[in-house]
Design a protein that fits this description.
The structure holds 2 protein chains of 2 kinds. By secondary structure, chain A is an alpha/beta fold. Helix content of chain B is 77%, strand content 0%. Classes of the chains: A alpha/beta, B mainly alpha. The interface between A and B is medium-sized, with 36 and 26 residues.
């Protein structure tokens, strides 16, 4: 069988003339019709650049194909070297022969055009359809990606749809003309786990239906297991290993592949939880943080006089306590209220009801017992302040002075989080993502807090960096007896750091308890769904089920009070909210 | 459209504030209508004569009384009489306005027709020689004062080509369209020149931002031809800053362009206001400022409506 796509010794560089910097150093692979090739690597490995070179979008990103060949067998059966094709010819190939889906569905669609317009455009360009015919084709395309109520949705603008819906629209656009090759560049990275599972299920199903060849780019080896036939591992622009899926996953040859497989936290159903903390012993102490009936609502207004017509019930009667040295993970999807809970604890939002109490450790003078580390280390450090000023900030904000003791603490903390001691005079842009997150941790520790709120603190990091930062967090916790509130959507990461887990859904805690118990024996249907959605290497043969259920709206009318929760206990430290039996 | 109603409710409040400010501001300036009329000879007036004159101009009463009197009239559409020529202020302003609005419109049209395509073109040729040429043009256009450009155009036309534009009284657009255009095209070009330069710069930078956006890449991945990517996908997203700038400039031009009106001897609002200030013609100054403020607010409203038309996120609100 002749391959659909055959890439030989592809070299891609950025820059002009003598200043060309080669990013991809000779990639070769074949892709047969109907086959899925996964390209795996961390950021900077050149995996996206390779993908963008295939449909030559790299030309618009400042890059250039330096040498090599990309042979595509077109629908008509002719072999075309895409490195030599004219830009005009490429416009006919993109969309028609090669479709592409991108990482960020929220920004990948034109905000000022309707979904329908953007879908119809694909039919207009490549199939010559217009007017009613294009409209009809667009409806069919939306139905193909299982979007309910397709006709009405065509009139929507991107900002009116959720991320998962938008990614389906993207897939519909990419598949509009039945391309022979689909390039998916981290198509689920920006999405929630359960939405990710749906998109993966959809892609797998469409692949079976259409026989499209697919290049699937990802940093997540767990995800690869569910969809790929072959895997290609890239590191710093080189292909370090490629082969059939099972061979790569079960018998990796190259040390980097082995490292990747080891570094990626694989969800192990509660078997990989920490055993360094016994809550029973700790209960003699006073909790570091007690949260009681915390409720946060945001008013919804409408009309000329901005009358209050309802409220977004973001966090609803959340109660828990957190012992010194303990990690409580708050798990949930975006919009579930997990970040709002964290923010309320730092007085960043005002609760309408409920209270929380933070207790410092005995004998410690504390101005600020709760500190926070945010998700994006690129955005949470002021680029115009050097490290010294950044570290001094929480101290100054608490009314403290920059004394020599403070300076000593800075150098101590920098060394402790594993940053070079000469960092003090440097600026954030001189550090990598992982280093910046270490900086954020050091900053949070400057005022000697007893509780650290980690809001998706490792989600933006590469897998191997992620593992190291998690390790650091565990060490710091033991050393400083810190209590962690770890907010995350990533079950595999949570499994590695949490002692206890609280699962939140639509603003409410639906299940809470010992990490091992919750993960190995989930009781609430939502927790089960969440755990079932986690892709794992072990379950690679399983097929994802398509699930089109939507999260209940959080907007409630004025005066609405949810029903009192009744809890069912499943063990010494494991309880779940009783569910209403509905048809 | 409750947004619109809200805006319309705030209109009169702003106008009231503006009127108070102008009223006080012009009276803070040393001198009054009497000294403006008589110059140094005002010192020769006897107290009785001065009192009589002040009574004639209506400036003998307290400020609050004067303001109240003026406000009551203004609410009924009577902005008072101009002390310099005795005509109703509103009539004087309205007689000057057609020329001003036409000049402003012409300048905006010229700026958008030249500046926008030029800026978009430069953005697509980023860092290439043609981009550099456009940027140099834009820089020159923005930094050269309009009187220099005006005089330069006049000089070239009169001494090189031997033709002179019509000057003096306004030629009506409706009675003599060609004569009207002949009269206004040079001033409009002069005004439009620096305006074009700023439109070029802002549309170039807005376009450069947008061209890096994800959806532009998506459009390319769909096989949208290069020109359509720019005009259909990118440009609508880059228009907001251009509309903002055009609105501000247009509102400003509606207040009259004093220098250009002077150079080309055009009877526009700018010269009217300037002369009124020099002659301490309180009623006329107040009328002019109020009129300009009203124009500004209407233009701002139009700009906001344009935002809503351009961007569904503004039109439909967030999710």
């Amino acid at each position: 069988m002749t391959p659909l796509l055959s890439v030989r010794d592809l070299r891609v560089g950025f820059g002009k003339g003598d200043a060309v910097k080669e990013i991809v150093h000779g990639v070769s692979f074949d892709l047969h019709p109907g086959e899925t090739l996964a390209i795996v690597g961390e950021s900077g490995s050149g995996k996206s650049v390779t993908a963008l070179s295939i449909n030559r979008l790299i030309d618009y990103g400042g890059g250039r194909i330096l040498s090599g060949a990309i042979a595509l067998r077109t629908r008509k059966g002719e072999a075309l070297d895409l490195t030599q094709t004219s830009p005009q010819r490429m416009e006919k190939i993109r969309g028609a022969e090669i479709g592409m889906i991108f990482q960020e569905p929220m920004t990948s669609l034109n905000p000022v055009k309707t979904i329908g317009w953007q879908l119809e455009e694909a039919f207009r360009l490549h199939r010559g359809l217009s007017g009613a015919a294009a409209h009809k084709a667009a409806i069919e395309a939306l139905e193909r990606v299982r979007i309910p109520d397709a006709e009405r949705r065509l009139g929507y603008y991107p900002h009116q749809l959720s991320g998962g819906m938008l990614q389906r629209v993207m897939i519909a656009i990419a598949l509009a003309t039945n391309p022979r090759l689909l390039i998916a560049d981290e198509p689920t990275t920006a999405l929630d786990v359960s939405v990710q599972a749906q998109i993966m299920a959809l892609l797998a199903e469409l692949k079976r239906e259409t026989g499209t060849g697919m290049i699937f780019i990802t940093h997540d080896i767990g995800l690869v297991a569910g969809i790929a036939d072959r895997v290609l591992v890239m590191q710093a622009g080189d292909v370090v290993e490629q082969g059939p899926l099972d061979q790569i996953l079960d018998a990796p040859q190259h040390p980097y592949t082995q490292h990747l497989l080891k570094a990626v936290p694989h969800f192990a159903g509660g078997e990989a939880v920490r055993h360094d903390f016994r809550r029973v012993d700790a209960l003699k102490q006073r909790p570091a943080l007690t949260v009681d009936d915390l409720t946060v609502r945001f008013p919804v207004t409408s009309g000329l006089l901005r009358r209050k017509t309802g409220a977004v019930h973001a966090v609803e009667s959340v109660s828990f306590d957190l012992m010194p040295g303990e990690t409580l993970a708050i798990v949930g999807e975006s919009g579930s209220g997990k970040s709002t809970t964290a923010r309320a604890l730092l007085d960043l939002v005002q609760p309408v009801r409920g209270s929380f109490e933070v207790r410092g450790l005995e004998g410690k003078s504390q101005h600020r017992p709760v500190q926070m580390v945010f998700q994006n280390p690129y955005a949470s450090l002021n680029p115009r302040l050097n490290v010294e000023s950044l570290l001094a900030e929480p101290v100054r904000a608490g009314g403290g002075r920059l004394t020599s003791a403070m300076r000593d603490r800075m150098t101590y903390l920098l060394a402790r989080v594993g940053l070079p001691t000469d960092s003090l005079t440097r600026y954030p842009h001189e550090f990598s993502g992982g280093q910046r997150q270490r900086l954020c941790i050091a900053r949070a520790l400057m005022v000697d807090p007893s509780v650290l709120v980690l809001d998706e603190a490792v989600s933006a990091l590469d897998v191997s960096v992620q593992a190291k930062v998690l390790e650091l967090l565990v060490d710091l916790q033991k050393e400083l007896h810190l209590a962690y509130l770890f907010v995350s959507h990533d079950m595999a990461v949570v499994e590695r750091i949490a002692h206890r887990i609280a699962v939140v859904y639509a603003g409410q805690i639906v299940e809470m308890g010992d990490a091992a118990a919750v993960l190995s024996n989930p009781q609430h249907s939502y927790t089960r769904r969440l755990i079932a959605a986690v892709p794992t290497i072990e379950r690679r043969r399983e097929r994802f089920e398509l699930d089109t259920r939507s999260v209940p709206s959080l907007v409630k009318p004025i005066g609405y009070e949810p029903r009192e929760a009744s809890w069912i206990s499943y063990g010494p430290d494991h309880k779940a909210r009783a569910e209403e039996l509905s048809a | 459209m409750n947004y619109l109603t809200r805006r319309l409710v705030t209109f009169p409040l702003i106008m009231l504030g503006v009127s108070v400010l102008v009223f006080v501001a012009i009276r803070m300036v040393p001198g009054d209508a009497i000294t403006a009329m008589l110059g140094t000879e005002a010192g020769l007036l006897t107290p009785d004569q001065r009192k009589a004159l002040a009574g004639y101009f209506g400036i003998d009463r307290s400020w609050t009384a004067q303001y109240w009197h003026w406000l009551l009239g203004a609410l009924q559409g009577d902005l008072g009489l101009s002390v310099t020529n005795g005509k109703p202020v509103l009539d004087v302003i309205l007689s000057r306005f057609p020329l001003t609005i036409e000049l402003a419109l012409l300048a905006v049209v010229i700026a958008l027709c030249i500046g926008l395509p030029l800026g978009v073109f430069a953005a697509t040729r980023n860092q290439k020689p043609s981009d550099l040429a456009v940027r140099i043009f834009a820089m020159l256009g923005q930094s050269t004062p309009s009187f220099v450009i005006g005089l330069l155009i006049l000089y070239i036309l009169s001494s090189v080509f031997g033709i002179l534009p019509t000057m003096g009284s306004a030629v009506s657009l409706f009675e003599d369209p060609i004569g009207n255009l002949k009269q206004l095209i040079l001033p409009a070009l002069t005004l439009g020149f620096s305006f074009t330069a700023s439109v070029t710069r802002i549309s170039r930078s807005a376009m450069l931002d947008v061209l890096n956006d994800d959806y532009v890449r998506t459009a390319r991945s769909k096989g949208v031809p290069a020109l359509q990517v720019i005009w259909r996908h990118a440009l609508p997203n880059a228009l907001i800053p251009v509309v903002t700038l055009s609105g501000v400039e247009f509102g400003y031009l509606l207040g009259g362009a004093v220098l250009v009106e002077k150079i080309y001897a055009l009877p526009g609002l700018g010269r009217l206001a300037l002369d009124a200030i020099l002659q301490r013609d309180y009623a006329l100054v107040q009328g002019c400022v109020l009129f300009v403020a009203l124009n500004f607010m209407i233009v701002n409203l139009l700009v906001d409506l344009a935002y809503a038309a351009l961007d569904p996120r503004i039109r439909l609100g967030g999710r």
